[in-house]
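Contributing new records

If you add data, match the layout below exactly. Sequence lines come first and carry their own label; structure lines follow with theirs. Keep one chain per record. Anything else will be rejected by the validation script.
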Amino acid sequence: MNTRSLRLAVRPRLRLAWPRLPLGLLLPLSLLVLAEVLVRGGVVPANLLPAPSQVVETIIWLGGHGLAGHVVSSSLRVLLGFVAGATLGVVLGAAVAVSRRTEAVLDPTLQALRAIPSLAWVPLLLLWFGIDETPKLVLIAIGAFFPVYMGAVAGIGGVDRKLVEVGRLYRLGQLALLRRVLLPAALPSLMTGLRNGLGLAWMFMVAAELIAASRGLGYLLSDGRETSRADIVLAAIVLLAMLGKASDAAMRALEKHWLHWRDSFAPQEHP
């Protein structure tokens, strides 16, 4: 292949790669500009919807008044609760997927518990564990558990029977079959469950901190509501969105690394 052909082969990839970031920013930037114009023009009351520039100023002001401590507190709670809930979700999901008897015993109860709203757990957890860190972590773990559990059950249940038969031909025991065949084959569904569980962990963290917390982004939301500071409420929401997006991006990068072998459909770019 000569130099001209090589340039022509590489150029379309370069042309198709660079618009992704601007396209991803197009909608949020448009909404921010629209909100700024409406608030500055007096169309929308500033006390109900502060201008985006004012929200940025509030975030900068909070940065000098303990914002880092709130972010660290919320992030640690999500991390600990997510790890606990996801681990239990993988273990119970695998147990239910490989054993009909275990499925008959556990799955009906877990499906019923899955339908309970997050706020319904709060009074019970406060009665059981008080207002310390334990009820917050338990609530976050509950939020992370069910998506991971469902992903594990669906993923292992959808493994090709031929793969299992090959594992049995090699005389793999139940645990070895699960570790070397079932879980790797179920990894795409399991990763989807982990990403959904991480998103719900952030949501349940806010629910926990709104009820009983003295630090965290949920506490900032409650404080902003009680002091009628819509700019603080929006600042906390923006920070939650950024942290949630960052954690999901990290999980997505991990998913691409673990599933690099997968030859799946990818949406095509249009010129």
